[in-house]
Amino acid sequence: MNGTIYKFERDMLRGESIHVQKKRDHTWFKKHWHNYFEIIYYKNCVGECKLNGESYPVRGECLFLLTPKDFHEILTEEVVGSHSVILSFVEQAVDGHVLDALTAGP
Length: 106
Known about the structure:
Layout: E1 6-7, E2 18-24, E3 28-33, E4 37-51, E5 54-66, E6 72-76, E7 83-89, H1 96-103
Parallel strand pairs: 1-3
Antiparallel strand pairs: 2-7, 3-6, 4-5, 4-6, 4-7
């Protein structure tokens, strides 16, 4: 994979403020960013999520929160019975207190 960062061309939201998508087997998203939030849940997956230059393992069950500020790249292997659920949403779809909690630092 090269180091190119691009704005995600496909609009996962499809004109809506919230969108949910379930993917089976494996995922591969080159390094990109977008102007909406994503919460991605992985089950029975094996792979890697590169988030702002840091590498995080995708193993078994895990959850990632991606903000519009995050550059990310995700690759999971084909594993029988694995899947992911991607919840994409714009800031306006979430109450301000919830958004503050999601984006608060440690």
